Amino acid sequence: MTRPCLPLLLCVFVLAIGVQACHRAVQVKNAAPEIFGFGPVELLSTEQAQLGLWLVDLDTDPVDVVVAWVDAAGKATPIVEDVGGHGHLALSSLPTPPGKPHVLLWNVKGIDPKAKISLRMTPDDTHGGVGTTRNSPVFALEDGLPTTNASK
After folding, report:
1. Does the reported pTM lie above 0.85?
2. Above 90 in pLDDT, residue 79?
């Protein structure tokens, strides 16, 4: 082999490796959704309250949210969704804060409006997995709860 062919062979070899590397699939992990903010919580009647949520998902996947109310003893009870509102399944999201706003209506029949409770909310987009569970401050339904940025 002559010396002038060696640079040409090296060039072909480098190009062949570069082309092979381009065919490798890039796998990007899907990000878990987050609840950027929640509230206000407002008592609409003796049997119904509303909860506002802001959902962020970098991939803008639909997000399910599991919401429970927690009593003073720490017992968590899943909320009973009421007719109206956006529901809690396959909610739309935005990739940047503050996220996509949603309203969830829930049946509060049987919950003492003076009782001190908190809310526990967990987002899940089934692709990126379960996001961080957020807990609200303690409040009474009759007093409501102002909007809270849950990311702080």
Report:
1. no
2. yes
CA pair distance 130, 69, nearest whole angstrom = 19
> Nearest CA to 81 among 64, 102, 52, 106?
106
- Name which of 9, 36, 30, 40 is nearest 100 in CA terms: 36
| Segment 93-121, tens digit of pLDDT | 999 999 999 999 999 999 999 999 999 99
**Selection from 117, 121, 118, 116 nearest residue 104 by Cα:** 121
Q: What DSSP character marks residue 52?
A: E
**Under 8 Å between Cβ of 144 and 42:** yes
C-alpha 71/C-alpha 91 separation (Å) is 26
pLDDT tens digit string along 56-66? 999 999 999 99
Flag whether pLDDT at 3 surpasses 80. no
The full set of domains in the chain, from first to last, is: 34-149 (2.60.40.10)
32: Cα separation from own chain's centroid: 7
Show the CA angle centred on residue 120, arms to residues 118 and 47, nearest 5°: 60
The DSSP symbol for 30 reads: P
- What is the predicted pLDDT for the residue at 15? 56
- φ and ψ at 111, to 5 degrees? -100, 125
